[in-house]
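TEACHING EXERCISE
Course module: macromolecular assemblies
Task: Read the component lines below, then compare them to the predicted structure of the full complex.
Student: A.B.
Group: 4
Components provided:
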Amino acid sequence: MIKGWKDLPIGAVILEPGSSEKYHTGEWRAWRPVFEESKCVNCMICWVFCPDSCILVKEEKMVGIDYDHCKGCGICAHECPTGALEMKPEYLFREED
Amino acid sequence: MRPEVIKEVTYVPYSGNMAAAEAMRQINPDVVAAYPITPQTELMQFFADFVANGLVDTEYIPVESEHSAMSACVGAAAAGARAMTATAGPGLAYMWEVLGIASGMRLPVVMTVVNRALSAPINIHGDQSDMMGARDQGWIMLFSENAEEQYDNLIQAIKIAEDERTRLPVMVGMDGFVVSHAIDRVRLLPDRAVEEFVGENKPMYSLLDVDNPVTHGAVAMTDSYMEFKRQQREAMLHAYKVIREVGEAFADVFGKKYEHIETYKTDDADYILIIIGSTAGTAKAVIDKVREKGVKVGLIKIRTFRPFPYYDVMDAIAASNCKAIGVFDRAETFGGAAGPLFGEVATAMFLRNKHYPMIDFIYGLGGRDTNVNHIEEAIDKVMKLAAGEEIPLVNYLNLRE
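Instructor-supplied answer key:
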């Protein structure tokens, strides 16, 4: 819950470092990149191009997408050389979330 | 340790610009960023001298525009510095965007505005359309009648801005040329006494405080923007109290009292004039003159324009025998009923559920002379209004028909 005007710090300063992680920009998404592991060669081009650092990597392998912060820009899918990422309309998924 | 220049109370022949620069020297701000613009140029030249001669510890930033001057002040104030600047007319208009950033980020920047007309046609002379145009940008606004008041107001402005209850920027206006360049008798206060009065700047959230990192200037969307604006209204309500307290503290230390308004012979007045700035001084002389003929006129001079002292004005009017009021506006509101000050006084009446006959005088635009005869003319019209004659709502002083 966002605080009322009496409780917010004055001047709209943010007192907590790294708080942007709590802001789920994934809410804005209209299109979602869907990852198909079998097609992925772990070239990491998507990781390089993602403007929001939403490509999740574990032990040098692409393992998925941070849907909390992915705004659905589609750059990853556009750049993926093997078609392992595909943009699908968000409404197909929202209810399952 | 910077040198002590003025050791005791001294009376000097100073212009408004010299007095404002002297106040800035004594305040010794951490950062001053400014762009020269007539009639402010001279002020910053005096201050640049102080910097060059080592009389202040200020980091002086000569920027390439007023937009940058205010931006530099915003950055400096966010870092926790005491930041000051000065501007005039179109320079203030060019700052417009950043004025709202300074107040929205609640940064206690203090600025002299040497009131000047706005283009077009280009005009370098005095009127108050600049500050009236910027009045809704969340700044506290004080106006000075003369050079000494500009000096005193600037010293008080630092304390008002930095008070924890306000944390709002303050602009202090003086009429271009009439105050800024005319030589006046000014009482200067001792350096150390001013230093002690303004005290140390204690920033609430400093960017340079690396142990407590904060983000300044973040985005606030529909979910919280309105809450921050509501905070600003509250800060202005507090400012009303803080300005009064600082005025009282100033009186305690330096013996001259400043209030939201100054009343002059209003107690028994039948007719009241309401004026902002240097013309209030001229009006006092006229009031003395017409009172010799038995005409009871009084004056309310507005020192605080934002937050507007509605109740102070109405208290002063209610305590007199007021039959009619003449409001003097040194700015236009095209398409409005009358000038900006007229609107405020009308609101004050509404808040008290009172009605007094009232007319507006637009005067002094672009430095147009307003002398004793013009004010006498105005008083004459106010008397006629009180007698029930029909007078136009808006009247121009010294206008060629």
